Amino acid sequence: MKITDSCIDCLITRVQLECGLVGADPRTTQETMDSCRNFLLSLKGAHLSHPQIASRIHHCAYDLLKNPDPFHELKDQGNAESIAVCKEVRSSLVTFRDFVLASVIGNTFDYGVKGHTVTSNFAGFFREEFKKGLVIDDTDRILPRASRVVYLSDNCGEIVFDRLLIHYLKSQGSHVTLAVKARPILNDATLVDAKMLGLDRIVDCLTTNCDGAEIGFCPEEAPPVLSEAIFRSTLIIAKGMANFESLFERNDLPPVAYLMAAKCQPVANEAGVPVGSKIALLRA
Q: For 63, left (φ over 0), alpha (ψ -120 to 50), or beta?
């Protein structure tokens, strides 16, 4: 997917949030936002996807703010909240659809998307969203393809629910390769986060989606172990909007299951659902 004017506003809103998270003063905040907006406008005509452009903007902001991980505290908070909720709901999750839905609800841990807020009462929010179910539900078609899975993760908080889904896949005999970020960007889960949650002891292979920190996923930048896993896979599970934006228009991949909440209008339009919809969409 390509960048739109609404994407520009959303990206600058996230830069403003990052300034707030590191305690930047008003002058530094304005200078950082102006620099990032000018850089963003210079990239608007480039042959880059929205996630690739967003990655460059956030790296620019981090350099200007001299902080490599503005979301550090929010990531820890998201994981802690999710662990508490998982303890409450784990016994009620039975079917593959249940675990997928829980994982998709976890995808709402996404800070700085314009018009989207992360709830302060996640336990109550989880129960209400679970009752609503999935707007697109391809879970009956997804599970039979899950013998060898490449799992592209997204956010902290969310990855705690991913852990439940991965546990289920493993119980069904799936081979799972999990890809996370090598270094911090936004509140995305990193190798450090995955190991802290013990995912390295659950999956068959834990790797990164590239050598640096990129939003979404570009297969051409994957490390060799991940490229080999994709080549051998029967299914890619792609969590979140950035992975959707990165891969949805490609036709050179194994079947892809997009698990996400559609939190903005451009992504919702592309998926053919209302904003806020939770989906498990298979492209085979």
A: alpha
- In 44-84 the beta strands, taken as DSSP E runs, fall at none
- How much is the pLDDT for 275? 92
> For each successive 10 residues of the chain (284 residues), what is the average pLDDT?
72 93 96 94 82 92 96 91 91 96 88 52 86 96 98 95 97 97 94 96 96 89 96 97 93 96 90 94 94
d(CA 192, CA 204): 17
pTM value is 0.93
Q: Are 230 and 236 in contact (CB under 8 A)?
A: yes
Q: Which helix (H) or strand (E) holds 204?
A: none
The residues facing 146 across adjacent strands are none
d(CA 14, CA 36): 11
Domains located in the chain, CATH noted = 5-65 (1.10.8), 72-283 (3.40.50.10880)
Q: CA–CA separation, 213 vs 202, rounded Å?
A: 23
CB 100 within 8 A of CB 166: no
